[in-house]
Amino acid sequence: MHWPSSNRPIWATLRVQLTLWNTVVVLLLATTTLVAVVVAARNALYRETDATLLGTAREVGISVSHFYPDTDALIAELKRKETGHADRGWFTHLLTSGGVTLWRSDRCPKAVADYAPQSSDRRVNVVQLGPYRYVRLAVDVPNSQPLHIRIGLSTEMVEESIRALLRLLVPVAIGLSLLVPLAAYWLAGRVTRPVAAILETAARLRPTRLGDRLPVSGSGDELDRLSTTVNGLLDQVATHVERQVRFVADAAHELRSPLAAIQNSIEVALAHDRDPHDYRESLTEVLESARQLTRLANDLLTLAEASDSSTRHIREPVNLAAVAAQAVAMFEGIAEERGVGLLLEPGPRPTVAGETGRLRQVVSNLLDNSLRFTPVGGRVTVRLDAAGPGAEVTVSDTGSGIPAADLERIFDRFAVVDPARSHADHVRSGGLGLAICKSLVEAGGGSIRIASRLDEGTTVTLRLPIWEQPREVVLADGLSAGAASGG
């Protein structure tokens, strides 16, 4: 996989940063765990040692209480106890409360023997004196001050056990220090591979190369969802760019004809001297072509404005029946001239949310289309209906109809139905009219659909949202304000 070129140093890449963070976190956790194991082992060993020493001290204390004041028998018992623990390096010390030694074993260190009992000592103490650890127990004897028994040992054996544990754990720590960065780098590579694919694909994207898509592993994780989201965005961008390219090409094609007519008329007029009548005819042709260009430019501007999501569209209460009646009245003369019946069926009078001028333009475009492609003796019907949260206006004709193969693209800009499958001399063309209708209706929150059958006619249905009455909002100071949910 080739990464997109970058001037960033390698340690600034996401993979290296993830590796460093993973290594630091894992090693920190491992170090903490190893230290905790050593500390816990050390504490456990010392607790076990203290418990054993204390148990032996209590046994000796019982012997002292039993044999005292027979010192010889008591010392013999102490020697026997010491001999039983000779392999552990234990030592025994018997002294008075004043610190006078009555007997001590050969292994009893001088530092321990010289350390007198303290007045703050409890009856049982665990004392760490340099490298030696012992348990001191005060034993009550008849007609005398308590005697003190010290049972202890050198901590060297305990520390050696801890050092043995460390010798076992240090290689483990070194192995982790070597393996963790490698494993972290490998894992970071797997994690960042989809990100690298996103960067690589984004670097390759061009307006003329929009077919590239990110690989989707199917794991369903966040990176997979990111790839799916980016692919969806690329699909939308590709569709938008293709539509714009096709629109520019179609618009240029439509503009070329009137411009060519204007140019031809002017060239003919300038070719040689003509009488005023010929000049008037040429200017009339130029004027008609200019009007055609004006209409086309206005349609393009309307379509661009309706398709712009940043444009704020006005939403006001519109009497849909009044809009339909005005549009029908405007086309009655044309329908009569062409010998086509035009009827507005009586029905409900819903109030919809939208813009009066744009809705009138939509209905007028649909009536114009129906009248142009309905033969003499045919009929165009406008019907209103209100049901549920929306209202519908339907424009039906008994014209030539639209082939089923062309219905899917009838709302495309500059869409043209195959002339060979049309009737008479008329070619049903979507041009910009139906595209404008669709954009205006959808911009107002409505929808448009079309149904048609050859030789039977076409039906176009607009569905528009019902206008909701403003709700009264009571403010904190007791005043009220209207909030129109539909506006």
Structural class: alpha+beta
Domain module count: 3
Name the overall outline: rod-shaped
For CATH, the homologous superfamily of the largest domain is named as PAS domain
The parts where pLDDT drops under 50 for at least 5 residues are 1-5, 418-430, 472-487
Instruction: Determine Rg (CA atoms, Å).
Output: 50 Å
Query: For the record, what CATH class of the largest domain applies?
Result: Alpha Beta
Q: How many E strands?
A: 16
Mean pLDDT: 79
Task: Describe the structure in your own words.
β4 and β5 form a beta hairpin. The protein has a five-stranded antiparallel sheet. The protein has a five-stranded mixed sheet with strand order 7-9-10-14-13, with helices on one face. It has ten helices and 16 strands. The radius of gyration is 50 Å and the shape is rod-shaped. α1 (14-67) packs antiparallel against α2 (71-84). Residues 1-5, 418-430 and 472-487 have low confidence and may be disordered. It has three domains: 1-204, Beta-Lactamase, CATH 3.30.450; 222-307, Signal transduction histidine kinase, dimerisation/phosphotransfer (DHp) domain (Helix Hairpins, Orthogonal Bundle), CATH 1.10.287.130; 316-465, Histidine kinase-like ATPase, C-terminal domain (Heat Shock Protein 90, 2-Layer Sandwich). It is α+β, with helices and mostly antiparallel strands and 487 residues long. Helices cover 52% and strands 18% of the residues. It has helices at residues 14-67, 71-84, 110-113, 156-204, 222-271, 276-307, 320-338, 356-372, 404-407, 433-443, and strands spanning 91-96, 101-104, 124-129, 132-139, 147-154, 316-319, 341-344, 351-354, 379-387, 390-397, 415-416, 429-431, 447-453, 457-465, 471-474, 480-483.
